[in-house]
Amino acid sequence: MLIPSIDLKGGKAVQLVQGDKVAIETSDVFRWVRRFQGFPMVQIIDLDAAMGSGDNNELVRRVSVKLACRVGGGIRSVDRAREVIDAGANKIILSTALFKEGRPDLAFAAKVCDAVGREQIVIAVDTRAGRLVTHGWRTTLTVTPAEAMKAFEPYCDEFLYTDVDREGLMQGIDMAAVEAIRAATAHRLSAAGGVTSQAEVDALDARGIDAVVGMAIYAGVIDLDAAKKK
Q1: Which residues have a catalytic role annotated?
Q2: Which residues constitute the domain of residue 134?
């Protein structure tokens, strides 16, 4: 399954290269909301909230009521997790708040799980050079992706793997790295970072992995109408 992504920064939909440089931006967020209607799931990430530089809460709320979506970025409390679900999101994506002093914070994971239900929780496994990163991809942890996934399996229904090194480069996904992540969990898995073609989306689907796609959609490389019919 292809999951289109809407990354929000400063009230605009953007696409970043490796989490840093803005390559594409548009103020007409709802043009893309309209184009993504009909997809089973759309991913919305509040980059400002993820980086601790503000938020796009009102925009996230407005988008959430129009799409089947999962929302991430800056969800660092139980109250915020509830707010996002109550505002219309089907699922929430957790990352930074799940780690305390660089280690999995299972107590927090359990509290969020109790509050919203594990079936509504996606846990992000974001990596640079194979190592976990948090705080908008700016903090590197010593815990391995596999260790984190094993620890958090009881508290989520799905993992989201993002290869930050390939994010936005349009050079293709690292399938070997994705398969290593696939082998680490029996949970549902989606992958992001470098997906450039429908062929890659299909290859991931054949492995039971959903593809989160941003840059290739906004650059017009992947045909949304054709993808919607898959």
Answers
A1: 7, 126
A2: 2-228
